[in-house]
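Lecture 7 notes: from sequence to structure.

We start with a single chain of 144 residues. Read the sequence below before looking at the structure.
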Amino acid sequence: MAKIADIMSTDVQTIQPQESLRRAAQCMLELNVGALPVCDGEYLLGMLTDRDIAVRGVAEGLHPDQACVSDIMSPDVESCTIDQDADEVMRLMGMKQLRRLPVVDGKRRLVGIVSLGDMALRQSGHIDRALREISEPDGRASAA
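Now the structure, written as tokens:
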């Protein structure tokens, strides 16, 4: 069985909580990503997605140069560890409707990130179910 350490990406770009929403959006554009882990040094504080910027930032009328990442980030994010079984993490991603998970060590230091794309490249057994689950509004796969 594959471990997350065998699948995760270790070259992870992060953003600090005091950065502006404009800077966060620019980083996402430059990196061609839809989410950034929010870190204080090495420590994971939360995640910021392009959807957070659109829904919690722009739609709420926050100014992109004045509002900070910490104002709209999701602070209580699911994560996994390098020694977790990939199938277990895949089930968690499907159940919680997650497309990516930060990978942390025992002290909650960010060491990588694992995405459904990473899983698809290495794990084919559960990817179809996880994709169905994250696509369902209530998180349950349809009986197709």
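The chain has one domain: 4-135. Keep this in mind for problem set 3.
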